[in-house]
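Lay summary. Proteins are chains of building blocks that fold into shapes, and those shapes determine what they do. In this project we predict the shape from the chain. Here is one chain we studied, written as its sequence of building blocks.
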Amino acid sequence: MPPRKRMNHEPCPVARSVDLIGDRWSLLVVRDAFDGTHRFGDFQRSLGVARNILSDRLHKLVEAGILKTQAASDGTAYQEYILTPKGESLFPVVVALRQWGEQHLFGRSEPHSTLLDKRTGEPIPPMTPKARDGTTLLPAATEVRKLSLPPS
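And here is the predicted shape, written in a compact code that computers can read:
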């Protein structure tokens, strides 16, 4: 199988983001890190992913500055993977994927996990893009301003 074409020079932010975190295992590692998973073995048990794949994704996430490694908090010889501020800024992405899945991938009474506000114990409200004045933005109210490429 030929190597996948890297998109780290694309002028599209979506393409670059998907290139870095868009595969299943990377996003699930980030999700688990938000849920408090920090150790290799705990990620592996939670995800059921092969060791070599998990090792590769953790390495890429550390290299990209999304996770960092540190000595285990309990003083053992293990290392822990911790979200960096850059990694924590992925929270809205994970929440948006969760909410989309809740809306479109579960039956009306089908049980699923729920993301709660710790202060109130209530489910968090749906995320929606907002204009500067606070009104909800629908796709038709937005446009992408693409870069003009020089003639080839």
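What the prediction tells us: The CA atoms of residues 33 and 43 lie 8 Å apart.
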